[in-house]
Amino acid sequence: MRSQSTPGRESTTIERVAEQAGVSAKTVSRVINNEPGVRAETRERVLAAIERLDYQPNLAARGLAGARSFLIGLFYDKPGDYLSEFQTGAVQRCRESNLHLMVEPLEAASPDLSGAVSRLIRQLRLEGVILLPPLSDLPAVHSALEHAGIPAVDIAPMRRRRDAPSVDTDDRAAARQLTLELIGRGHRRIAFMLGRAGHRATEQRYLGFSDAMQAHGLTVDPQLVQSGNFEFAEGLECARRFLNAAERPSAIFASNDDMAAAAVCAARQMGLALPEQLSITGFDDAPVATMIWPQLTTVRQPVRAIGRIAAELIIQHKPHQRGWPQPVPRPHLDLELIVRGSIAPAPPRKT
Amino acid sequence: MRSQSTPGRESTTIERVAEQAGVSAKTVSRVINNEPGVRAETRERVLAAIERLDYQPNLAARGLAGARSFLIGLFYDKPGDYLSEFQTGAVQRCRESNLHLMVEPLEAASPDLSGAVSRLIRQLRLEGVILLPPLSDLPAVHSALEHAGIPAVDIAPMRRRRDAPSVDTDDRAAARQLTLELIGRGHRRIAFMLGRAGHRATEQRYLGFSDAMQAHGLTVDPQLVQSGNFEFAEGLECARRFLNAAERPSAIFASNDDMAAAAVCAARQMGLALPEQLSITGFDDAPVATMIWPQLTTVRQPVRAIGRIAAELIIQHKPHQRGWPQPVPRPHLDLELIVRGSIAPAPPRKT
DNA sequence: AATTCAATTGTCAACGCTGTCAATCGACCC
DNA sequence: GGGTCGATTGACAGCGTTGACAATTGAATT
Questions:
Q1: What does each C-alpha distance from B169 to A280, A334, B201 come to in angstroms?
Q2: A291 in B contact zone (CB under 8 Å)
Q3: Does A318 touch chain B (CB under 8 A)?
């Protein structure tokens, strides 16, 4: 035998299982891969042997010999709370199919993005890739992946690609609903804080807001639509501008919770009573939503579920069909409106 | 040739590079692995060929043929903001050595924890594993790893294992320093909110607090030391108990920012002016620290750097030396005290 | 009983690389 | 000129699994 570096660690091979079960290695392989054409009784016997020997197939060997690699890539740009939540969902789904997730941070702004992607996929032979925004909108990434013939799932992309699956939630509908909560409480003059440009969420949330306002014949004051870039700091500035406007809004709809938290701070610093004098809504149900007072009315994103579905889409994709079937899967996910203390009936209008 | 499932995707092999460079495959392998005993000129030639052909060695093949797998595992229990930050640091370091990180969530409470660990390492042949708390303190995990002869780095473990490396920060010193900031502002009656039991941070932060109090001859009222379990909700309860105490503390030291945010909420609901009537400190410099008003005085954890170092330790570990060298590496990391608006001089004492 | 055919199982090579060990090279020495 | 020795390089056999294809089995059919 060849000297193994890890002393004494001979792990069971498929050969040993075959011996135990009294079949050939190939048959064991068939059982492992759930291939058809194995008699039930034989399958049982093999399964028992696997169990008895506590056999685990070697991933590297499977990857080398076969067409599959059992590896899925998760490419992201910036870390964040939602990332770990998302990846946990994705890993869960992977486990059910004996796949593994390789997380790879990628500089969205890097000049050699497509080179980096190309190197990764050739090195790892990924079976598929999940792209988190803003990577899900970068042509450099898409083309490298497509060139290699590797299926990719876009998460919340700005523009859906033809023949490519994506996972996203109906932010527009949720934003509409959230806005209706404000309108229903008598708010008429509502400020809207936009997110970062180039994100689907930014666009959709504004559209939903707009829908609701229009449906009620309310006009949106352009001065009350400004960007906070999804960041607390910029949200703070933005909120101050809103609150110093000639005619103060009675509510602020922030496109994410961080900015909503900023609005809370700004309002408090100006001595406004919350939520009596100003209603505030956020989006995402981020940790901060319940760590401030008043707690934010917001929309919960099923982040873990989205991760799970993204993995599911890759897994469902049949390797031999290059490209995706028509129609491309478009799973639907429901958002949950969460009403908390940060909104209240609009104060009586000063004449 | 054997039919590849990915049509037309013939990636360059080591053989092709060898041909280009006019050497044998083995020599190319030597260059790739930085093995000694290759003439400089030859090395150049091979490197040039690799460059020209844009060759990427196949990970599965390397893993199968050689003693290494080029895979490091990151085992965690619960996702969270710090996880994605940590893993990003770890991946960065891995990249520099052409390694990859496999993230694997593991149920700390699972009855078959050691089985799960054992299956993972046999399937993946991990070169090393990074254990995030609380996994870094579970004997089931350690023993499975040790049994397989796989090096593991414990992150912030409660008890350091003999002959096993760990990465942690000097929370005790930082907590001491933070407490001194309070004492220096005249605070004498300070409440301490503990974290979750079984975490090193919980223990060390309290000790640091205790150190500082003792150094100044201040007594710690046992009624003012209670646990908020590192969670906002429980922190809220805990803060209320502190603030309703017969003699109210003039400051609260919360063991993390989430609980500090809870203290802020609790105080505000009781109508206290912050920070004039109550100073509050947190720990970690979590996102919430700067998203509330007043912003939290806290301690920044170099999370990404810790991740990087954890990977470094695994990488430095020489595979042929089973176990770790004496003395086991104990890298030192500095914490950064960040003074923000949540602390102020103690109000004059009533009497 | 011979034939047929689908179902089941096995044989063998190959996946792309590295470990082992042998071969070659070239400088240096007697 | 031949010999010696360390430095380089190469030949070759796997690593553990799966793909292609051949072999075997056994029930149904003639």
A1: 39, 42, 9
A2: yes
A3: no
Buried b (16+ CB within 10 A) or exposed e, B114-135: bebbbebbbbbbbbbbbbbbbb
Rounded to the nearest angstrom, the minimum Cα separation between B222 and chain A is 27
CB contact under 8 A, B60 and A69: yes
Burial of A119 (C-beta count, 10 Å sphere; 0-12/13-18/19+): middle
Question: Which three-class secondary structure state does DSSP give residue B55?
Answer: coil
Closest residue to C6 (CA, C1′): A37
Residue A66 contacts strand D, CB under 7 A: yes
| Å between B113 CA and nearest CA of chain A | 15
Interface of B with A in 64-93 (CB under 8 A): 64, 67-69, 79-81, 83-85, 87-88, 91-92
State the virtual CA torsion across A317, A322, A326, A331 in degrees, nearest 10: 30
Minimum Cα–Cα distance from B124: chain A residue: A59
Domains and their CATH numbers in chain B: 14-52 (no CATH), 71-168+303-317 (3.40.50.2300), 171-300 (3.40.50.2300)
d(CA B154, CA B53): 41
Q: Which of A181-190, B3-12, B100-109, B255-264 has the lowest mean pLDDT?
A: B3-12
Task: Give per-residue pLDDT as tens, A94-103.
Answer: 999 999 999 9
* DSSP assignment letter at A129: E
Q: Is the CB of A26 under 7 A from strand C?
A: yes
- In the numeric block, the tokens 């450099």 are attached to A140
For residue B57 the two structure tokens come to 């060695």
Tell me whether residues A261 and B292 touch, CB distance under 8 A.
yes
Alpha-helix runs per DSSP H in chain A: 14-21, 25-32, 40-53, 59-65, 81-96, 113-124, 139-147, 171-184, 200-215, 232-243, 257-269, 303-316
Q: Which residues contact A150 (CB under 8 A, 6 or more apart)?
A: A121, A126, A127, A128, A129
Q: Can you tell me the distance from the alpha carbon of A180 to that of A185, in angstroms, rounded to the nearest whole number? A: 8
**Residues within 8 A of B (CB atoms), A 244-263 only:** 258, 261-262
Checking if the pLDDT of A207 tops 90, the result is: yes
- Residues B193-251: pLDDT tens digits? 999 998 899 999 999 999 999 999 999 999 999 999 999 999 999 999 999 999 999 99
The Cα–Cα gap between A341 and A279 comes to 9
Classify A281 as helix, strand or coil. strand
C-alpha to C-alpha distance for A191 and A214, rounded to whole angstroms: 14
Q: Please state, in angstroms and rounded to a whole number, the distance separating the CA atoms of residues A157 and A199.
A: 7
CA-nearest residue of chain B to A262?
B291
- The angle, 0 to 180 degrees and rounded to 10, between the axes of the packed helices B40-53 and B14-21 is 120
Q: Is the pTM of this model over 0.85?
A: yes
Cα dihedral value B82, B83, B84, B90, nearest 10? 110
Chosen for mutation from B12, B16, B84, B304 (greatest number of chain A CBs closer than 10 Å) is B84
Average pLDDT, chain B: 92
How many helices (DSSP H) and strands (DSSP E) are in chain A? 12, 11
Per DSSP, the three-state class of A77 is: coil
Using CA atoms of A226, A231, A232, A234 in order, give the dihedral in degrees to the nearest 10. -40
Interface membership of A13 toward B (CB under 8 Å) = no
Query: Residue A137's closest CA among A111, A117, A166?
Result: A166
Instruction: Give the list of residues 6+ apart from residue A271 with CB closer than 8 angstroms, or none.
Output: none
Residue A97 CA, distance from chain mean position: 20
Residue nearest to nucleotide C7 (CA to C1'): A37
Q: Which nucleotide is nearest to A38 (CA to C1')?
A: C8
